[in-house]
Amino acid sequence: KEEERKEGMTRRDFVKTVGMAAVAGGALTAGLPKNAHAATKLKIGFMGPFTGPASRTGDAFKRGIKMALEDARAAGDIPVKVDGKTLDIEPVWVDSQSSPEKSVKAVTHAVNAGVKMLVTGWHSSVAMACMDAESPLKIVHIGHQGESQYVNFKINDHPEKYQGWFKGWASPPVFAGLYGPPLMHFMEKGLWRPANKKAAVIVEDTDYGRGWGEALMVSLRTAGFDVMPFDVNAIDETEFTPIITKYKAAKVSIVAVTQTGG
Predict the structure, then answer these.
(1) Are residue 41 and residue 134 in the same domain, yes or no?
(2) What is the pTM of this model?
(3) Domain Leucine-binding protein: where (predicted)?
């Protein structure tokens, strides 16, 4: 148990967090009709790209969520207490389809179905769109994994407007900037001897991908590498032979890649 806590949030912690967020959601939605508060189930929307180019990520989300809910039930953490009421948790799958426009429609449909809070999500562009769609609806959304630093900027610029939004992952400049120092360490200790200092970066065609690519280029340059301008691929790209051939011809020593769907 202690090791689980050191590694991150346990399933029990997750359920407790959901319960607390539900209380916050109740405070934000106090103006709803009275019959909206008479439910015996707490409908929680779980957002992910369950179909579309990143559906494998969505599948992983769904399997993990189902496991967490099953374990929580077995441990007696579900039903949960909200405002003194005992409520079962009913998952509602909110399919973003990796599209900002479709994700907003999915959120609207979920809210009309009785969802008061949302958990997780994928893609920065989806996060940016959903933030604005959810704000006037007073929805609590925890742990969306849209990483772009521009999500942070929106929250910091208008904290009251986005008071129900809780970002779930660090921005690309934070974690992509961590790649350079280990490479420098490996080279200094003789653990890696690259033929040259040429580097290449491949990113997916998303806000996250471009932000990650920019930050990674800076990180590699601090490690002394001559970095080519990053190449952009479709999110569902699976054919990389042409770009690998290009890098071989350029005698690149290291390639950094981020790709969701391919």
Answers:
(1) yes
(2) 0.76
(3) 42-261
